[in-house]
Amino acid sequence: MNQTALEKSLQTIDLLSRHPQGLSLAEMADRLEFPKSTVHRILKTFIAYGYVSQNREDRKYSLGFRFLSMGSIILNNLDVRRAAGKYLRKLHQQCNETVHLSVLRRGRVCYIDKIQKQTGLSLATYTGFTTEPHATGSGKILLSELPPREIKSIYMQKPLKKYNSGTISDMAQLLKELHNVRRQGYAIDNQEHTEGVRCVAAPIRAYGKIVAALSISGSVFAIKMERIEGELIGLVLKTAQAISAEMS
Description:
The structure is a single chain. This protein is α+β, with helices and mostly antiparallel strands and 248 residues long. Helices cover 46% and strands 20% of the residues. The protein folds into two domains: 5-72, Winged helix-like DNA-binding domain superfamily/Winged helix DNA-binding domain (Arc Repressor Mutant, subunit A); 78-247, 2-Layer Sandwich (Beta-Lactamase). The longest helix is centred in the last third of the chain and has 23 residues, at 225-247. The model has no long low-confidence stretch (mean pLDDT 91).
């Protein structure tokens, strides 16, 4: 059966997706069993639109940044707020503390949902509130799997803001903290953003990628470190994992 031009194009992209190090024209033609002229014509079109790039040194072809931006759009459009709603409510009932759902937007933590504790300390956050990520549990989760160069680029034009004496204000210290967050799977904000407030956060994933963070926040009198370690880490991890399952 003769293949259409579209089918050949899709097979070409599929081949490149399985070889991130790149392939030469001859290698691609051999593996696809297409004439070199056909593969070259397909690649030329994809290059024009940014879907394929060619290394100037070894002349090998690989997927272009257009696919990266499309992937980001797809992940950003996943309705994490809708998927997480019932789990936020259940988590709030279980811990009786303020719970937040947040994402990373333009280098800042953006809170996209919140259920406030009815009594006790009232946090100044609200849906739509943004702040710098290095000083919050959610922010550290959202930064934790980014490449170091991307993390540094967020703070390229400004120092790490010191909210109080507990805030991490050194890039090397932040990168070390993020290594620990990756290793343990959760993050803690021990009065690093707001004096008198502690927070524990966990990652929400879609197809393996962190797309949001879930956190429990409250007064240091209600959220002691012993409670974080004995109860809240388990609760926030279990809930984040359940939301992640809905997202994948």
